[in-house]
Amino acid sequence: MLNIAVEWELLEESPMKGMKFLRENNARTRYLSLEECQRLIASCIAPHIRALVTVALHSGMRLGEILNLRRHDLDFASGFILVRDSKNGESRHVPMDATLAALFRAYPHRLGTDLVFSSSSGGHIVDVRTGFQNACKRAGLTDLHFHDLRHTFASQFVMAGGDLYILKEILGHKSITMTQRYAHLSPTYKIKAIDRMNTLWAGATPQTNPSEVLSESSSVTAVSQPAYADRPVPAQPRHDAGLRI
What is the rounded CA–CA span in Å between residue 80 and residue 46? Predict the structure, then answer.
């Protein structure tokens, strides 16, 4: 409001200028179980809503990224989807599983547009929320946003043993910190990492026998110290204070 007052020339300068706000913790990790995912897809009546929900659950893409997909962004030969208009400003490649490949091949292509999902006029689809919320009601799911489908993909990926750094690349996160919000969903993640190290060390051939590293002959203990006390002390060289050079 103060910035608008400056813009309208009601104030010369905002008293809030230069003030930094506290960082807001608005992280949301609502995700669905696999059974709930199937129930949601089955509850989508409109074909385009069912397709959008399926793509989000199987790829982790944002709604805007899905709606901006074009036919030439689908590389069936390599099995990747090219996301050009990413939130962080960088393009990325998202793996295309068998479900998505079959969906994209079978989805009807509207003449006059290169968009994968388009409206009846050939432009971008505008209203997705109404159809999505109706599907949620029919599936008996509450407090669910479309963006939660992205969280669902990430959560199921990690719980299936997926690597966090691979997930970071799939989701297009700038920092691994954003991806680590899903790490707690896999309590065995670190254990599996240690198991891999155990396997690595088990295959290595030891060069020396650990029992030979500290042999009895080279050890000095409190019990063996008296033996050294019985030895004569070597005579020290005598220094004459009146020695002349």
Answer: 26
For residue 91, what pLDDT is reported? 92
Residue 41 carries which DSSP code? H
Q: How many CB atoms lie within 10 A of CB 185?
A: 15
What are the angstrom distances between the C-alpha of 19 and each of 24, 72, 208, 237? 15, 46, 63, 77
3-class SS at 30?
coil
Res 100: pLDDT: 97
* Structure tokens belonging to residue 239: 């220094």
Q: Cα–Cα distance between 113 and 71 in angstroms, integer? A: 9
The three-class DSSP label of residue 82 is strand
Burial class of 125 by CB neighbour count within 10 A (0 to 12, 13 to 18, 19+) = middle
pTM of the full structure: 0.68
Q: Tokens in use for 64?
A: 């805007």
**The pLDDT of residue 183:** 83
Q: How far apart are CA 160 and CA 158, in angstroms?
A: 5
Assigned token pair, 118: 């388009």
DSSP letters, 202-233, are HTSPPSS-HHHHS-GGG---TTTHHHHHTSPP
Element spanning 74, H or E: strand 74-75
**Helix ranges, 123-224 (H):** 129-139, 148-159, 164-171, 176-179, 189-202, 210-213
* pLDDT means over runs of 10, the chain (245 residues): 89 86 66 96 97 98 96 96 85 96 95 94 93 97 96 93 93 92 74 75 66 50 46 51 44
CA atoms within 13 A on the CB side of 69: 27
